[in-house]
C-alpha cells in the first residue's frame, strides 16, 4: 500500500499479514463465532462491519475520515475512560470484498499503544447457510504500560474481540464457539 509523504507510517513492517499467515514475534488470536444464518444476515453484518459498527458498538469509536472503511482510511479509537483514555490511531490496510467474506483490517500508527494489525470480518458458508463473525489480530506491546500489563493485556484483547462480535450479533442469537 502506498502512502503520501504526510501520512504517518505503520508501526510494523508486516502490513497486510492478516490476509494469510501471521508473522512470528507477535501475540496472535483468531475468534470466530456463529452469528446466525442466511445471505440476508451476511449482507447486513457486512454493511455494519464496513461502517465501523464493531467499534461503535463497543464504545471505542472516536472518528474515521470516511463513512465506510476503505484502504487508507484514518480511524481513531479511544481506549479507556475520561482523562485516562488513550487515543489510538489506525489506518485501514485493506478491505475484503469477496462473495462469502467481507470486512476490513486496520494497522497501528504512531501513538497507538500496540503494534500490529486487526481484521474484522463476516463469513458466509453456503454449505449450511451459516454466518460467522471473525476477529483476528497479531500484536505486540508498543508502549511500556502494555508491556507491563503482559497477560492481562492479552485477555483484554480477547474480551474486546468478543464484544466486537456481540456488537453485530442479531438480538437473541446464540454464539456457539467454533
UniProtKB/TrEMBL annotation:
InterPro entries: DUF1990, UCP010260. Residues 11-167 form the DUF1990 domain. It comes from the Bacteria. This is DUF1990 domain-containing protein.
